[in-house]
Amino acid sequence: MMRSPHSYAAVVRRRGGALMVREEEMVDPRVGAKAWPLVRGITTLVEALKLGSRCLRFSAEVYEQDLEAEEKAGGARPKSGGPSTLAALSLSIIALVTADPESPPPTSGKDGGAGKSLFTLLTVLFAIGLFVALPQAFAEGTSRVFKLGLDVRDPRFQVITGAAKLLIVVGYMLAIRRMPEIYRVFQYHGAEHKAIHAYEAGQELVVANARSKTTLHPRCGTTFLVMVAMVSILVFTAIGPLLPQLGLGKLGDNLLFFLMKLPFLPFIAAITFEIQRALARWGKGPLALLLYPGFLVQKITTIEPDDSQLEVALAALRSALVREQGRATAQGDSTFDGFEALNEARPAA
Across the strands, what pairs with 21? Predict the structure, then answer.
């Protein structure tokens, strides 16, 4: 999936080799209140989760359609036809780590009914439990096991929580990378970065130019997630002493502090967005070191793609750019016989 200021394009390859393009006009996020510092970080995060999830569902639906067509034609249906429960619950997280935080998606569009909204809520709760509640529980457990006697207001408690959060992020990414469906998503994630690097280098959008590029990119959603963990250490260390002494005991203090953290999550996302945006643009020399933890985790969430996957990423980027330049106005879905056919229909400017 690729996003330009006024449109987006998602491309999937059908089992017959054809490329199916889904494209849609979008509201320019660079104007109005959504472009204000801090506000843009929150809106970008929320909307990136929505569009990323929609594109992943689009890909899964086309995959299911092709399987059903093969089945009706007399072919055997593969055993791994649908996503696993863990892969399904990870939808929002995968949408985030494979997103470009500087490229927010549209505010309009069909997101599905109440069932999909409930499922999205479940995936968000799963993410909060994994990356907010579990690290705090780990810190409390570490304090008890090693008899440290740390209070939730103690800065050392927040350092342990932040370290646990980073370990969980890395462990979680390593675990889901082993699932075949997620492995392919991470290959396409690498292909997207290579295509963007070719574009930013001013090169023609062809496989030969994208193949040699790195799969790492400073604006990647994976780097955003890692930086959120680091920024949260500072923010929660600052608000920890503000937790009132109500005599609730360890369990009560932990529950109260967990609830106290939730309203700060959008604030942390907004700050992190601005920091990552500044580092991606001006982070040279020693400042570039701040991006390295994110690059290390990107080595998990991006995998070297093959040429057919590069074609899909390049097709999405080319489609988004052609629409941005006003040379195409199609809405909805269209299908091309392959990458060459798409290039002929949508030549570079």
Answer: 11, 334
